[in-house]
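So, can you check these tokens?
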Amino acid sequence: MYGWRGTIGLVKPTFRAGPLEAFIRFMPDGVCVVPRYIGIRAGTEKEFEDTLAIADQRVSELAELKVDLALLQGAPPYMLRGVEFDKDYTRGLEKKHGISVMSTTMVQIQALKLLGVKSLVGLTYFRDDLNPKFANFFEQAGFKVMAMKGVDVPFSDVGKMPVEEIYAKAKKLFLDSGGGDCLYLLGAGWDCLAAIAPLERDLDTVVLTNVPADVWASLKHLSIHEPIEGFGRLLAELP
């Protein structure tokens, strides 16, 4: 029987390859994953503003399939609207469609709090006109943001960025900004998973990024406790 331990529905922001495959690889036997897509292509603020109506429809589709959880991936659309909007929006979708709904942003806030994080340094692959707004989202949630900076890479080419370069840029930003309780790598579009464990060891901090946070929340929701080593404290400890 498929999905005998549960089924997770993902509302994915882009069609890019990589993040979905990574998420599925982390899922234990007996968990099924059903993806639905929004179709963001350029990563602009205008695109992010237009996603909510599409996300609503995708959650409706997942509700018809009776998934155990609809997870809204893609942090920027919800970050740009603020913490309170994020909470109200997911609650509204739950009430409307009759299934559990989480946003990746609310997931990240929960994870940071359970890991005891008070301050963070953030690296993104978005333009620097958006990064102060992302920083403001975390400040609304009660965290001190030491820095929130973007790397200079086309949105469509993020997945081609070498992990060595991600490691180097993240490490430099963390050290230059005075450090914090967490190094936050915003976005699932870059292949940063292999950098998590080295960065945690070398900087003596917690590293949080989208895919591990979403995996943690999914396992937690399904009451599955199978720690995953090699990808940071969150998956190793499953708080």
